[in-house]
Amino acid sequence: DVKVTQSSRYLVKRTGEKVFLECVQDMDHENMFWYRQDPGLGLRLIYFSYDVKMKEKGDIPEGYSVSREKKERFSLILESASTNQTSMYLCASSLIRRGGTEAFFGQGTRLTVV
Amino acid sequence: LAKTTQPISMDSYEGQEVNITCSHNNIATNDYITWYQQFPSQGPRFIIQGYKTKVTNEVASLFIPADRKSSTLSLPRVSLSDTAVYYCLVGDGGSNYQLIWGAGTKLIIKP
Lengths: 114, 111
Hints:
The structure holds 2 protein chains of 2 kinds. In chain A, 0% of the residues lie in helices and 54% in strands. By secondary structure, chain A is mainly β. Chain A is globular, with a radius of gyration of 13 Å. Chain A starts with a strand and ends with a strand. Chain B is mostly beta strands. At the A-B interface, strand 4, strand 5, strand 9 and strand 10 of A face strand 3 and strand 4 of B.
């Protein structure tokens, strides 16, 4: 069974802390994505990566960075957490394949910054 | 990147067929149309994908007209457990493939 695993289901951090959200996929997918989801706003792309050590900014990269040192792992870093980064964070992966592809999602990490 | 437009919400009743339409006027030649389902506090889950005409699987059907500027997800005989948010996306899956999500359609099934 294919799997995308996020390191934490729930996380509470203090303002100003450096926060690491980890995501691991076991499908040998090239693409990996980080989204945040807020009520009424749908999924917004923060960063994505199509290869090891490659990263591309999505729609809302400010305040975030990412790391992809290995193909299976994609980390999202909040350099200095702020209360407006309280959100549900979703990681996904997909194959690079012309002709359509399916993305697989993790269960999400609900982050609260206090 | 092609943008999609869907109704914000829909209601229906158990046992009915539900059709959700998505508009994607700027769809590119290589783009496929993909639908996902999301339950509260879970990540989205793939439902169905197509390029043109009709695609059917065990869960749903996808109807795509010849001009491909819209698509319709059809859920046969819905049940309460089909209450979820449904997202329509377009893309070609190639390099730099970005998944750009709209607000989705919140489908509520009533008994």
